[in-house]
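Entry:
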Amino acid sequence: MKPKRAAFSLFICFLFSFCLFSPNVVSESGSIGQAGAPNQRPEGIELGVYDPAYVQGSGSDLQGDSADVLVVYTTAYPGSKDFLVTVLLKTPKTIAGFDFEIIITPPDLADFSTVRIYVDSMDTCPAPEDTCWYFFPIRECLVVPGAVIEDWTFFEAHGAHGDTTLPDCDILRLFGLAFLGTFIPPQPSYVTLFEFGVDVPCVPDSLTNRNVTFDITGHLSDPFGETVPLRAHPGELTIWWSVPGDASNDSLVDLGDVLFLINYLYKNGPDPCVMEAADPDADCKVDLGDVLYLINFLYREGSPPEPGCAH
């Protein structure tokens, strides 16, 4: 989308919303980010945290009339679900709307999280009317709005065009439009614009390329529909190696890992997320020896778990 067309579209949408809606009219379902809450954070994992030194050193100081949108660098463990990545805004001008597209590279190392919500729909059936209503689940991209846009009239997040009731959100597209009195005023320092959820697969420790890039493009608009010059800065996520001995993938080594291995080996339990983590004796196989090794470490002052080599 060309900047002029984007600005014109935002301006038309703004006028349309101003004529039809009052500031108190918002969809009952709220914004996309309020449809579902992220999972509880596993111990030892920092979610949506950014390093001020990184932000300051990113070359993102404001220049003239340009605004900055920056995807924060962060880290995650293999198997992390609904991991929140923060997008920051710094702007010398008032912002009334935006549209962004975020792409993950490489696509096999992470996916945009989705949340399941339930929507009312009316089927074709005879009266009485209350028998015509039912709920059906749909999945939408997990996006949590920051404080500066949580009261915006419109805030939508969706996957690539063509997504139906089961979007995979390979490409994350966002559109936001403020109403009078809820514009983002000039921000000399970074503020959180929104956070998007990411699912990290069970990446084996043997994989050497563990960096994911979030490329972001888009437009900002002021209250008059004019495009605000924008510099968009991509972000990165580094996938950590697993914790040796952490068979249950909760970033801890405790009795839960012993029980997890017993269930896996003898009770058809789930596979370890990262097989190397379930090989604490580092003999390149997961068996009873690893169970005994963990018991010795936890309760008999045995040797600590080692980075495994099982695949």
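The radius of gyration is 23 Å.
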